[in-house]
Specification:
Distance between the termini: 84 Å
Order of helices and strands: HHEEHHHHEEEHEHEHHHHHHHH
Number of helices: 16
Largest sheet: 5 strands, mixed
Shape: elongated
Low-confidence stretches: 389-395
Strand content: 15-25%
Length: 419
C-alpha cells in the first residue's frame, strides 16, 4: 500500500486535533483519504494541479462517497474517480476480503440454525458500527441459493437398493399465520452401501400430489430402479411411490406400526403389548412372525379388538424386510435412518429459529444442513455392507449356517413359551 510521508502524517494529526469529536476516528478517516489520494496520483501519473502531459496517463474525475466499516467505527470517505479507467485501491480490496469473511460467518450461523435476529445481534456485538439489519442478513443468506439449487439438481445414480422416505415438520409463517409445514426427505442406499440424500421438498401438507411431485423430481434426476422402498403407512406416499417406481416392494416402518397398535390400548397395557410385538419382529422368518402375531391377536380378540384387527389385516406389509439379507434387516425395517439421524439434527438446530419467516428460509436452512450431512456420508464409512467381500465368512460356511439356524429356532421356542 502507498506509504505516506512524515509531512502528510503531521498535517493530518494537526487537522484531526483541531476538530471536535472522536479524534482517533477522524485521524483514521483522514489517513485513509490521503492514502487514496496518493494512490490516484500514482495511477494518473502526475500530482494534482501539475501540468505535465509527458507523464500524465489519465485525468481526475471528482469523487464518489463510500462508507467504510473499521474497528474505530463507520467512516464516510470520498473515493477518487479517474475518467479514463476505474480507480484501483488496495484499501477496499482488503476490506472486501474481510467483509467476505464476515459474510461467510453469517452464512455459517444461518446453517447452524441461528435466527436472523440473533445474527444481527452477534454482528452488532462484534462491531457496533457494522450496520447489518435483519433484512440484510436475510439477503446475505439468500446468496447461498444458487449453491443450494446446484446441489438439489445434481444428477443421481440410476440404481439404488433401498429408498427411505419421511417428512419432518417445521413452523413457518404463511400469510400472517403460523402453520406446520412438512419437509419431504428421501434417502437412498446405493449398491456400494453409501447413503445419499436424493430429494428435499417443502409442502403445505403430506398428500399424494406433494409426494408425487417429490418422487418425479427424483426420477428426473436419473433414478430409474429401486429394490425396496421404506416409509410409514401414509396412503398418498405409498400411492405416489408405486406410480413413479412401479412393481417395487414396500416395507412399512415397524416403529410407526407399533405406535399405531399401541394407541388402541390404555397406558398400563402398553409395555406388555410392546414386548409381545417385539417378538414378532425378532422372528427369523415370515412364517414364525405370522404364527406369533396370530397368538397375540387371539389374546386381545375380546379385550382390544382393534389390536387383533391390525395384526390380522396390516401385519403383512411390515414383514417385507424378512425377504432381504439378514445383515440388512435391522436397518431396512424402520425409517430410523431419517427419524433418528436427520430429524433429530434438524429439529435440535431449528429450536433456535423457532418460527421460520417463510417456506423459502425453512427449505434453505434444511438444505444447508443436509448438504453437510450428505458430504459426510459420501466421504465417510459405508452405511451397509453390500459386496461379497464384505460379508462374514460364516454366511458361506454350511456348518456355521446350520448351527446359527438351530440357535435361532431354540431362541424362538423359548420366546413362544414366555408368551
Amino acid at each position: 500500500m502507498t506509504q505516506l510521508n512524515s509531512k502528510s502524517i503531521k498535517t493530518i494529526l494537526q487537522e484531526a486535533l483541531s476538530k471536535d469529536g472522536d479524534i482517533l476516528k477522524e485521524m483514521v478517516r483522514m489517513l485513509l483519504q490521503e492514502i487514496m489520494e496518493e494512490e490516484r496520483d500514482q495511477q494518473v501519473g502526475v500530482l494534482s494541479h501539475k501540468r505535465d502531459n509527458t507523464k500524465r496517463r489519465a485525468n481526475r474525475n471528482g469523487y464518489k462517497s463510500r462508507s467504510f466499516n473499521t474497528r474505530v467505527g463507520r467512516l464516510l470517505l470520498a473515493k477518487p474517480q479517474i475518467r479514463e479507467f476505474a480507480f484501483q485501491t488496495q484499501l477496499f480490496e482488503n476490506y472486501q476480503r474481510s467483509e467476505k469473511a464476515l459474510l461467510a460467518s453469517i452464512c455459517q450461523m444461518a446453517t447452524q440454525g441461528v435466527s436472523t435476529n440473533r445474527v444481527k445481534k452477534i454482528v452488532g456485538e462484534l462491531s457496533p458500527d457494522l450496520i447489518y439489519s435483519k433484512s440484510t442478513v436475510s439477503r446475505i443468506t439468500q446468496e447461498l441459493d444458487p449453491q443450494i439449487k446446484r446441489w438439489q439438481e445434481e444428477q443421481l445414480k440410476a440404481y439404488y437398493i433401498y429408498l427411505f422416505t419421511d417428512a419432518v415438520y417445521f413452523y413457518v409463517r404463511v400469510n400472517h399465520q403460523v402453520i406446520s409445514c412438512p419437509v419431504l426427505v428421501t434417502i437412498g442406499v446405493d449398491k456400494n452401501g453409501h447413503r445419499k440424500i436424493l430429494g428435499i421438498d417443502i409442502a403445505f401438507e403430506e398428500s399424494y400430489q406433494s409426494y408425487l411431485n417429490h418422487f418425479e423430481k427424483i426420477k428426473e434426476k436419473g433414478v430409474k430402479k429401486v429394490d425396496l422402498t421404506i416409509s410409514d403407512d401414509h396412503k398418498g406416499l405409498i400411492k405416489a411411490q408405486q406410480e413413479v417406481f412401479p412393481h417395487t416392494p414396500h416395507q412399512r416402518c415397524i416403529c410407526h406400526f407399533m405406535r399405531n397398535v399401541l394407541s388402541y390400548v390404555p397406558y398400563k397395557e402398553k409395555a406388555k403389548l410392546a414386548d409381545y410385538l417385539k417378538q414378532i419382529f425378532n422372528s427369523p422368518s415370515r412364517e414364525m412372525a405370522a404364527t406369533i402375531a396370530k397368538m397375540i391377536a387371539q389374546e386381545y380378540q375380546t379385550s382390544y379388538h382393534k389390536v387383533s384387527q391390525m395384526l390380522e389385516e396390516e401385519l403383512e406389509f411390515t414383514l417385507t424386510y424378512l425377504a432381504y439379507p439378514t445383515h440388512h434387516q435391522r436397518k431396512i425395517r424402520t425409517t430410523n435412518l431419517i427419524e433418528g439421524v436427520i430429524n433429530k439434527d434438524l429439529k435440535q438446530r431449528s429450536k433456535v429459529v423457532g418460527i421460520f419467516p417463510n417456506q423459502e428460509s425453512c427449505l434453505r436452512y434444511v438444505c444447508l444442513r443436509l448438504m453437510e450431512i450428505d458430504e459426510e456420508w459420501q466421504t465417510g464409512r459405508r452405511y451397509m455392507k453390500i459386496t461379497k467381500e464384505d460379508q462374514n465368512l460364516e454366511q458361506n460356511d454350511p456348518l456355521l449356517c446350520e448351527i446359527k439356524q438351530m440357535k435361532e429356532r431354540v431362541k424362538t421356542q423359548e420366546e413362544l413359551v414366555a408368551i
